[in-house]
Write a structure and sequence with these properties.
Largest sheet: none
Number of helices: 13
Number of domains: 1
Distance between the termini: 42 Å
Radius of gyration: 19 Å
Strand content: under 5%
Length: 292
């Protein structure tokens, strides 16, 4: 999607008297040569695929390594017990992030948002709004357009792949997309959306990508939780009037620069970080033995 900067989006919002989500929809229509209705229906399909992932989650499924599975259900049961410290919404955000990440690890259908490894962040913040707070499907879809525009800018100016920029590029980008989407749902201004995006990215700046045994399981799934909760806090800060002192496009550019400077061990190679721990090496050897 040809959106080069957040400032470009802000400019189009002002010049065309359109909302953030409408500018992104317009761009999709122009690029793919489809009607607004066709673009909207495709986004609706994306939303419903997210819902389906959560609806069809099964706690008895296990990933290839056997390390992943069932935590999403454990978290949901804990949330329903009323013992959680986080409150109903955040507890469910955590549960959905785990459930979606586990679905990815167990080779179920997910939505890459923006990547498969970060698939749990956006659904985690939006699905509880749909179920608990009865936010309309139309409002959710508009928020997804906002998130798509944010992801397009980050992909253009920096990167969205762990192999290119570490986990900050995957979970960090997903968190920024979710923060912007939540701010839009709450009626935030374009400037507030930008502040939420900037703060979310700054909070996860430098996060490495170190998947144990090269699998998108550990620590990836729990980082989806961190990205989702970070998004909620940044959206709330933005709506409260808290601002990022560094302009959002400069934050995005900085993330890209940090990613390029990360050693190769910290960019999805499974050569450093948690992947290089004794436990990580043990799992790697077991997986290699299984493949022989």
């Amino acid at each position: 999607m040809a959106l080069d900067s957040m400032e470009e989006i802000f400019g189009k919002i002002e010049a065309r008297q359109r909302e953030f989500w409408q500018v992104v929809l317009d761009t999709d229509v122009e690029e793919r040569q489809v009607t607004p209705e066709q673009s909207y229906e495709k986004m609706r399909g994306t939303w419903r695929a997210m819902l389906e992932t959560d609806d069809t989650y099964r706690a008895d499924r296990r990933s290839v390594s056997g390390l992943v599975g069932g935590d999403g259900q454990r978290m949901r049961e804990y949330a329903e017990s009323g013992k959680g410290l986080s409150g109903d919404y955040i507890s469910e955000v955590i549960a959905v992030a785990l459930r979606t990440g586990e679905s990815n690890a167990c080779m179920r259908r997910i939505v890459a948002a923006p990547t498969a490894g970060a698939c749990g962040v956006l659904p985690a913040v939006l699905i509880p709004l749909w179920h608990q707070r009865k936010v309309s499907e139309e409002r959710i879809i508009e928020a997804l357009y906002v998130s798509a525009g944010i992801g397009a800018v980050i992909g253009y100016r920096a990167c969205i792949a762990g192999a290119s920029g570490g986990c900050q590029a995957e979970i960090g980008t997903a968190s920024a997309m979710a923060a912007g989407a939540l701010t839009a749902v709450q009626g935030g201004t374009p400037a507030q959306i930008g502040h939420a995006v900037a703060m979310a990215l700054k909070n996860l700046m430098g996060l490495i990508c170190d998947p144990v045994a090269g699998l998108v399981e550990v620590p990836c799934i729990k980082r989806n939780v961190v990205g989702a909760v970070n998004a909620v806090s940044c959206a709330d800060m933005a709506m409260a009037g808290v601002e990022s002192r560094i302009p959002v496009d400069q934050v995005i550019d900085c993330m890209g620069d940090v990613g390029r400077r990360l050693p190769v061990e910290f960019r999805e190679t499974a050569l450093g970080g948690l992947a290089a721990t004794p436990f990580g090496q043990e799992i790697k050897e077991k997986m290699q033995e299984r493949m022989r």
